[in-house]
Specification:
The chain has 460 residues and is of the alpha+beta class. It has a domain at 2-70 and 161-221. The protein is built from 18 helices and eight strands. Helix 5 (119-142) runs antiparallel to helix 13, helix 7 (168-180) crosses helix 8 (187-203) and helix 15 crosses helix 16 (411-427).
């Protein structure tokens, strides 16, 4: 694992901006007058610390950082993506051959955090197993299976690379979670936290004293309620809850917003409009989707339960405006639940099944030797399923459907979103017409030369 801060700007300039943000609301003059008054570093730093001690941490959201992370596992990747105010660019395993990227090797410990006996033998067996999985990945690629399908047999230990941007407030939350929260039980995550803290000490020193774990605990409150972890994967995505009368709610909210009237008056106006134009709901809905903001769509929401493979989970979680609940990696899920790509079904489904069977047997061998779950998580394969719950407002679902119903989207998430859209159309036919790929809803494609050719590309 290697981490580097890419935009290490002058600390005095950064503190000046933060101090000005702290003074702005209570100082005479405009923002430039306030900036000009912040001309002494020591005074600025003292002010920033006093404000932070009062708990007003929004000022450090103006202090932004970009990090490069090399050779971290998808465990790190998925953990980082869960921080919804952080931005990422991640190397894609859809387009790149990953057979030689390497992988993470944990120290195998027991539940008391002590090394399990015969450590050298365990590490040797682990390496042998990981190498087997990467060879199987290479076998499928060499047989003509696309990388995006072959990656389903890769272990969740493979190395990936990330560029991550976040403000100092999110960085503080992340550090406390990685160093003192329950995630710190995973050695790789704690290592990441330690390396980030080293950078903070040298380049973001004002933040160091707030990385102390005071607001975090390693206890999982749900442990005392846990019934078991024999998880059964959902059969399909399912709409389990939603705003009643979706179409009507969107239109009523639109009228209230633009006409500045009560809800009751909005219903009266809508009834009058329907008398003159029975298609008014469809017409208004089409105008909403063509607008830039589409804020009216945020007045409705949809809750889905979704089964999704681990390698595709990041495609889903990176849509940050949804409220997403992804299960913790610990305790371990059922490794017998997995997705099988159609291309592999056609080529050699039995070989694919044997890979997952072997992986499950190897995992159980390590588990039975007393290895704790935090070190067993690297036996997840990318094709293993997770059950997630998500709540999306109407604007978010419209956006995600544009991206993921596209024929160029990965097939699993495309099928998933098409299914979700189909269910929403049943309960909201007018709003449902807004959902789908850009070409289907808007009649053009923004992909340029990358277009599938279904419709003409958008002219610039």
């Amino acid at each position: 694992m290697k981490i580097e801060l890419l935009n290490n700007q002058n600390i005095e300039d950064r503190i000046r901006v933060i101090a000005a943000a702290g003074k702005l609301s209570r100082t005479k003059g405009d923002v430039f007058d306030v900036l000009e008054s912040c001309d002494v570093y020591e005074k600025n730093l003292g002010l920033v610390k006093r404000i932070l001690e009062m708990g007003h941490k929004t000022i450090i959201e103006h202090d932004y950082y970009v990090f490069a992370l090399a050779n971290v596992s998808p465990i790190i990747e998925q953990t980082l993506i869960s921080h919804r105010f952080t931005s990422f660019t991640i190397k894609s395993a859809r387009m790149v051959d990953f057979r030689n990227v390497g992988y993470y090797t944990p120290s195998f410990k027991d539940k008391n955090y002590k090394l399990v006996p015969n450590q050298d033998s365990l590490v040797k067996d682990y390496h042998s197993h990981m190498q087997t999985l990467f060879k199987e990945y290479g076998y499928f690629v060499d047989k003509g299976v696309k990388e995006e399908d072959a990656r389903f047999v890769l272990p969740y230990s493979f190395n990936t690379n990330i560029i991550m941007g976040l403000d100092a407030r999110e960085l503080e939350l992340m550090l406390n979670e990685f160093l003192y929260g329950k995630l710190s039980n995973i050695d790789e995550i704690k290592e990441l936290g330690t390396k980030l803290l080293d950078i903070v000490k040298s380049d973001i020193s004002y933040l160091e004293e707030y990385v102390n774990g005071e607001q975090h605990t390693k206890d999982d409150w749900y442990d005392k309620y846990r019934i078991g972890n024999d998880i059964v994967t959902y059969d399909k995505a399912r709409l389990v809850d939603y705003t009643p009368n979706v179409d009507e709610n969107i239109i009523i909210t639109t009228i209230m917003y633009h006409e500045q009237v009560t809800r009751e008056k909005a219903y009266e106006l809508l009834n009058d409009m329907l008398k003159n134009n029975p298609n008014i709901i469809d017409d208004i809905m089409q105008d909403i989707v063509k607008s830039k903001q589409q804020r009216e769509l945020e007045s409705v929401s949809f809750k889905f339960e979704v089964p999704i493979s681990l390698i595709i989970l990041k495609h889903f979680t990176r849509h940050r405006t949804q409220s997403l609940l992804v299960p913790d990696f610990v305790p371990m899920w059922n490794l017998e639940n997995y997705q099988t790509p159609p291309s592999i079904k056609r080529l050699d489904e039995e070989r694919y099944k044997e890979i997952f069977k072997l992986n499950n047997e190897t995992y159980k061998k390590f588990r039975d030797l007393g290895v704790r779950d935090e070190d067993l998580i690297y036996f997840y394969l990318c094709g293993n399923f997770a059950n997630v719950t998500t709540i999306m407002d109407g604007r978010t679902l419209e956006w995600i459907s544009r991206m993921r119903c596209c024929t160029k989207a990965q097939w699993e998430i495309r099928n998933l979103l098409n299914d979700m859209v189909s269910q929403v159309r049943e309960i909201a036919p007018s709003y449902g017409k807004l959902l789908g790929a850009t070409c289907d809803v808007y009649g053009y494609c923004p992909e340029g030369k990358e277009s599938c050719g279904k419709v003409k590309c958008k002219e610039k």
